[in-house]
Every structure is written in C-alpha cells, then in structure tokens.
C-alpha cells in the first residue's frame, strides 16, 4: 500500500516530532551510506538537534573530520562550484519556470497568428484586426503553412503514383 504524501511543516507535538526526527535521521544516514557505497564516494553527515548535546555523526567523527578537511582544503572556487543552498535551488526553479513560460507564450502567440490566418482565409476575420507588430511572426506562420501544404501535396502525389 502506498503512503500518502507528507506535508512539510513543523510538527508541534513534541513526542511526534522526536519520533519523526529519530526515524528520519536513521533514514538520512542510510541514504548517505548507500550513496557512499553505490557511487564509491566519500560522504559524511553531521546532525545537530535539540535532543542531543553533541552532534550525531555518520560514519564516525574521525572519518567526517577527514572528509570535511579535504573539502575545506579545496580552493573556494571548487568548493562552491556545485554547492546549492535553498536560495540557489529556488532561483534555479524560478529561472526554469520563466523559461517554460516564455516557451508557452511563444507557442500561444504562434497559434493565435495561425488561427487568425485561417480565419482570414475562411472570411471570418479581416486584416484590419491584424496588429502590424506581428508581421514578421505572421510571415513565419504563413511560410510554415505553405511548407506543410507543399509536403502534403507531394505525399499525395507519391501515393497516387504507387
């Protein structure tokens, strides 16, 4: 049976929060262990909590110190190259969404112009409704429609000859 999606928000009940913390901490350490084993990389995890006075470290404090020392020994440019924080991740999502929006807007504009062209051909629209700023794009729409008609005619002629 599939589990329902958990809404990410602060757990107000102390005992539930502590139980969730313990389970998730164990799961986090398991994931880090799997990452290290499957990908052959050095990894560590350090978790500070209100429940323990000292941080909990995986796999051990000495290994974690070694991994962090090697990381800190890297030049700052190399350290920051692939590092992502919440702000950077959110910026990436926003940029991706903006790019998708631009693409959809462009597709919508193309379809509007194509629809207008067909309405003009059907006699249900006139060129007086046409915005001259769209002339270059309309030229592309018409060229595309003509290419489509030409290729369809060639296809029909080939089928007719066979």
Automatic annotation (TrEMBL):
<keyword id="KW-0539">Nucleus</keyword>
<dbReference type="Pfam" id="PF00319">
    <property type="entry name" value="SRF-TF"/>
</dbReference>
<protein>
    <submittedName>
        <fullName>MADS box transcription factor</fullName>
    </submittedName>
</protein>
<dbReference type="GO" id="GO:0046983">
    <property type="term" value="F:protein dimerization activity"/>
</dbReference>
<keyword id="KW-0805">Transcription regulation</keyword>
<dbReference type="GO" id="GO:0000981">
    <property type="term" value="F:DNA-binding transcription factor activity, RNA polymerase II-specific"/>
</dbReference>
<keyword id="KW-0238">DNA-binding</keyword>
<dbReference type="InterPro" id="IPR033897">
    <property type="entry name" value="SRF-like_MADS-box"/>
</dbReference>
<dbReference type="GO" id="GO:0000978">
    <property type="term" value="F:RNA polymerase II cis-regulatory region sequence-specific DNA binding"/>
</dbReference>
<dbReference type="InterPro" id="IPR002100">
    <property type="entry name" value="TF_MADSbox"/>
</dbReference>
<keyword id="KW-0804">Transcription</keyword>
<dbReference type="InterPro" id="IPR036879">
    <property type="entry name" value="TF_MADSbox_sf"/>
</dbReference>
<feature type="domain" description="MADS-box">
    <location>
        <begin position="1"/>
        <end position="50"/>
    </location>
</feature>
<dbReference type="GO" id="GO:0045944">
    <property type="term" value="P:positive regulation of transcription by RNA polymerase II"/>
</dbReference>
<dbReference type="GO" id="GO:0005634">
    <property type="term" value="C:nucleus"/>
</dbReference>
